[in-house]
Amino acid sequence: MKRIWLLSLGIGIMGMNTLKAQQVMDLYPGKIPGAKAIPATYKELERISDGKVTGLSKVSHPTLTLYQPDPAKANGTAVIICPGGGYSGLAVAHEGEEVGRKFAEIGVTAFVLKYRLPSDSIMADKSFGPLQDAEQAIYTVRKNAAKWKIDPARIGIMGFSAGGHLASSLTVHYGDVKIENAEKLSLRPDFAVLLYPVISFISSPHVGSKNNLIGAEGSEAQKEYWSNERHVNANTPKTFLVHANDDGAVPVENSILFNQALVKNKVPVEAHLYQSGGHGFGLHNKTTSDEWFAHLFNWMKANGLLKGS
Predict the structure, then answer these.
(1) Helix (H) or strand (E) holding 30
(2) Which of 201, 198, 179, 181 is nearest to 82 (CA)?
(3) Residue 22: which pLDDT band, with cuts at 50, 70 and 90?
(4) How far apart are CA 129 and CA 281, in angstroms?
């Protein structure tokens, strides 16, 4: 299997065409809040595997990629998907496109978020750039719910690994508004799906994600803010968690801590901890015949998130 990095021809155009998305849209209609002028030498990179774009790095131009279900299957639920990559890359294929298509198969409208990766070169405060993009994503989907035939009360956030940190950050910090929101739309997700997520920057942290987001010398206040298990309350959205006990990159304690915080605050939560599977397995944990997506489908149905399906 050949893996190479190539400079993008334009901002993500080649990568998005390879993904064959139904629609790719700029995340912001105008100026990106907190953004600096992008240096001419700062170019988005693509990881190519077997002729397909599987990953991106140096992302400075955020987008939403839309995957719509067959109208006959559509149930009005939507999910925003945040691929992982340690806040240094985005695994846009197996933690983005593949997942978006899977949701469309069950009638859920999916949006893959290509969020900016933290960098002092392109952001005034790199720690808040990804969260701004997640807020803008849910703002955009909720604002345009009627156009996409989405129920604005059934919009969720999903994330893998560091994307799980971003998704869980939105679930606990949605009230810390970092974007233009003249309509004062709620930025609170209605549910969250977190796969082997980075949760804490204090207990069993994934050091790479922490360092990329707040720097190796990040303050205690920053570590506290971004340790999402510490900010769960009764209004945190219901959550579905998946992790492998042998995850050598992001310790399973991250999911356990978040699960415990949700239970303590009486927030509905379901967690699936696999005996093995390691890290980054996406839809396919090859160590078991069990399919976590089937459990997710049942959980969504039980929680009234698949009405009309």
Answers:
(1) none
(2) 198
(3) confident
(4) 26
DSSP codes of every residue in 217-265 = T--HHHHHHT-GGGG--TTSPEEEEEEETT-SSS-THHHHHHHHHHHHT
Quickly list DSSP for 33-63: TTBPPPPTT---EEEEETTEEEEEES--S-E
Structure token digits, residue 101: 């298509």
User: What is the per-residue pLDDT across 109-127, written as a single tens digit (0 to 9) for each?
Assistant: 999 999 999 999 999 999 9
Q: What is the rounded CA–CA span in Å between residue 54 and residue 95?
A: 9
Spatial separation of the C-alpha atoms in residues 258 and 180, rounded to whole Å: 29
Determine the distance from the C-alpha atom of residue 24 to the mean position of all C-alpha atoms in its chain, rounded to a whole number. 17
Q: 74 or 9, which is more confident?
A: 74
CA 128 and chain centroid, separation: 14
Q: Using one digit for the tens of pLDDT, what is the confidence trace for 181-224?
A: 999 999 999 999 999 999 999 999 999 999 999 999 999 999 99
Degrees to nearest 5, angle at CA 134 with 49 and 39: 65
Q: Does domain 3-302 have CATH number 3.40.50.1820?
A: yes
Residue-level pLDDT at 307: 82
Q: Which residues contact 20 (CB under 8 A, 6 or more apart)?
A: none
The sheet with strand 269-274 has its strands ordered as: 23-26, 63-67, 109-114, 78-82, 155-160, 191-195, 238-244, 269-274
- Residue spans of the domains in the chain: they are 3-302
Whether the Cβ atoms of residue 80 and residue 25 lie closer than 8 Å to each other: no
